[in-house]
Amino acid sequence: MTALPTPGHIPVMLSEVLDMLAPRDGATYLDGTFGGGGYARAILSAARCTLWAIDRDPAAIRRGEALQAELRAPDGTSRLHMVQGGFGEMRDLLAERDAPMLDGVVLDLGVSSFQLDEVERGFSFRTDGPLDMRMGDTGPTAADIVNTMAEADLANIIYEYGEERRSRRVAGAIVAARAEAPILTTFRLAEIIRSVVPGDRSGIDPATRSFQGIRIHVNDELGQIVSGLDQAMEMLSPGGRLVVVSFHSLEDRLVKRAMNRAAGRLPAPSRHDPGAMRAGRDAPAFRLLTTKALRPTDAECRANPRARSARLRAIERLPTAESPTSAPSSTEHRP
After folding, report:
1. Alpha-carbon distance 209 to 215, whole Å?
2. Most buried in the list 102, 147, 204, 256, measured by CB within 10 Å?
């Protein structure tokens, strides 16, 4: 099939995603984080399949509708179906539309390159913009959070979600600054953070971790991941695959834990919990396709710096008649 172009967007670890997902004709897939449409275009180019795509961002939905038009058949149908919403609600979103069971799901976690590049979205401090950070168009903005949240709570989200060791200093500086005037722009917030967080040898801007923590809180990103992983595995047909690309340790830790649990690789349950012991003896319904996270190649990192922190993990639902000890397929990656 002829590849569909992907204007203005470089999907991370695309060849590895396609290798793990293995799209086939007649199958049904879900791209739970449509973004710029890079994975969606590649999946639809790789096989004559049907693809459902979810995104919270109205701008992403508009990009998807343009791709729908490219794929529209003479009878008016399209192999691509766009749905606005969070991937953590995929079960309800697809049930409302009578979507079938899925043969594969791909999730590209975190903020998209389009959102980072749109100044008015307030995700980046490379250029000054309104302090928004919402992936969708509803709910409190980052400005609402930094101007109203209690100092202790602000310190907690910056520490837990941004992994910023100086979170108390940052929260104190934010509270002191907002007492003088509301914090409404990315430049002002970044300057406040830099005033109490010194630079280090990594070269990473001192404001990066705090911005990450606030962004994750604004969008409930970790909650979406936990819910989305559970629902994706539930909705997979036998032989169906879940492929997840993450970009920082908090995301990857959740993905690793969920996949290991589904594949029966968690530590043995306590003997003091008989119910857990029975559950631990149940044959797992999934097998890992990646026994450790895959990393992008050096060549990809040079061509696309955003790929440097990427991690890919994948899992497959076992066919009902197959034993979990069956020989792995050729797509399994081992350390």
Report:
1. 10
2. 102
Residue numbers in the known binding site are 37-39, 55, 87, 108, 115
Length of the chain: 335
Could you give the CA distance from residue 269 to residue 255 in angstroms, rounded to a whole number?
A: 20
Binding-site residues for S-adenosyl-L-methionine: 37-39, 55, 87, 108, 115
Q: Judge residue 42's burial from the number of C-beta atoms within 10 Å of its C-beta, 0-12 exposed, 13-18 middle, 19 or more buried.
A: buried
Order of strands across the sheet that contains 50-55: 80-84, 50-55, 28-31, 102-108, 236-246, 311-317, 286-288
Q: CA 240 → CA 28, 43, 46, 69, 320, distances in Å?
A: 10, 15, 16, 28, 12
Q: Residue 212 in contact with residue 161, Cβ under 8 Å?
A: yes
CA distance 173 to 191: 10
Mean pLDDT check: name the lowest of 43-57, 133-147, 268-282: 268-282
Return the pLDDT at 171: 97
What's the pLDDT at 206?
92
Rg of the chain taking only CA atoms, in angstroms: 21
320-327 long-range CB contacts below 8 Å, 24 or more apart?
320/238, 323/283, 324/264, 324/283, 324/284, 324/287
Question: Is 321 a residue whose pLDDT tops 60?
Answer: no
Please say whether the dihedral angle defined by the alpha carbons of residues 62, 64, 68 and 70, taken in this order, is positive or negative: positive
Q: Strand pairing of 28-31 and 102-108?
A: parallel
pTM of whole model > 0.90?
no
Domains parsed from the chain with CATH numbers: 14-108+221-317 (3.40.50.150), 118-219 (1.10.150.170)
